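#dry-run=false #mode=assembly
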Amino acid sequence: MKYTEARQQLIRTWGQLSTHWGISRTMGQIHALLMVSPDPMTSDQIIEELKISRGNVSMSLRSLVEWGIVHKTFIPGERKEYFASEKDVWKMALQIARERKRRELDPVIQSMQHLQAINPDSASAREVDELNKMTTQILDVAMQVDKMLDIGIRSGGQTFVRKLISVLR
Amino acid sequence: MKYTEARQQLIRTWGQLSTHWGISRTMGQIHALLMVSPDPMTSDQIIEELKISRGNVSMSLRSLVEWGIVHKTFIPGERKEYFASEKDVWKMALQIARERKRRELDPVIQSMQHLQAINPDSASAREVDELNKMTTQILDVAMQVDKMLDIGIRSGGQTFVRKLISVLR
DNA sequence: CAATGATTTCAACAAAGATTGAAACAAAAG
DNA sequence: CTTTTGTTTCAATCTTTGTTGAAATCATTG
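#status=ok
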C-alpha cells in the first residue's frame, strides 16, 4: 500500500469513527491529520489538505484543544499559530476517557443521587420498588466505573491495562 | 420527590444521555421506561406513555433487541408481543460493552492491520515513519483494550471491576 | 496609529439523522 | 376465505447537527 493511500485511509477511518463518539467527522479528520504529521501544522495547511472552510477548521481546532488532545504551539519568529496532536496514543486514550467521564458519567451520578428517596404518591409499591432498584443499581455501576477510571487515569493507561490483563487472566 | 416526577426524570435523563452514544433519544427513553416497569409492556403502552409514533416504537424496539438489552416475551394466551428490559444493570453494561467492541473497536483493528507495511512512494522517510508509528500505536492500544474487554466480559462486570479496583488501588 | 496578516464568530445554508403516519404485510380467529 | 388485530416498512417531513464564508475582531508590524 502506498503512503498517500494509507494516509488518506487513516484520515477517512478516523473521521468515520469519530461520528460514533459525538465528535464531528471533520474534527476526527483534522485530528488524524495532526497525528500523522511529523511537524505542527497551521490552519492554512489543514484547509489545503482537507478542503474544508477556515471557519470549520478554527472551530474544530478549538474543540480539539478543549478535549486536551491537540495543543497550540508557537514557533519562534513565526506569526502563525501551529497545532500539534498528542503523539502518545495511550495518553490520548486516557485524556479522552477523562473528558468523557467528566462530561457523561459524572452527570449520571448526580442525576441518580437526586432520584434516591422517592415518595410513593399514586404509585403501587411494586412500581416504586422497581424504580428504586433501578436507580440504585445504576448509581452503583456508575460509581464503580468512575472509581475504576480514576485509578486508570492516575496510573497511566499502558501500565493500568497491562497490570490488569496480567492479574485477571 | 414524587414517584411520577422521578420516573419522568429518569426517562428524560436516559434519553438525553443516549444521544451521546449513537443511540436516538427515543430509544433511550423506551429503554428507561422498560427498565423501571415491573412488567413487560406492549408497544401500545409505550406509545401511550411516551407519545411517540407506532413506527418509531417498532423500529426502536427492534434496535434495542439487536443490542441485546431488551427481550421479546410472549404471554400465554395473549396475542400481542410484550417487551422487557434486562434488569441487571451490570449485565446490561457488559452487553453494551460487548456490542460496542464489536461495532467500533474490531473495525479499527482491522483497518490498522491493513495500514501496516507502507511503501514510501513520494513521501519523505519522516512522514512514512510518523504514519507507521501512529498506526502501530493505535493497533497496540486497540488490541490491548480489546483483550481487556474480553476478560471483563468473560468474568462478568461486577466481579471484574471489584477485583480490579481492589488489586490496583 | 494605519495597514497587513491571522483568527474567530455567527447567520445562512446544507447534510445527516430521527420521526411520523399511512400503506403493506403477517398472523390468528371466526 | 374474510375479517380482525397486530406489526413492519418506508417515503415524506421535521429536527438536529455540521459547515460555509464573509464580516468582525485581534495582533503584529512598519
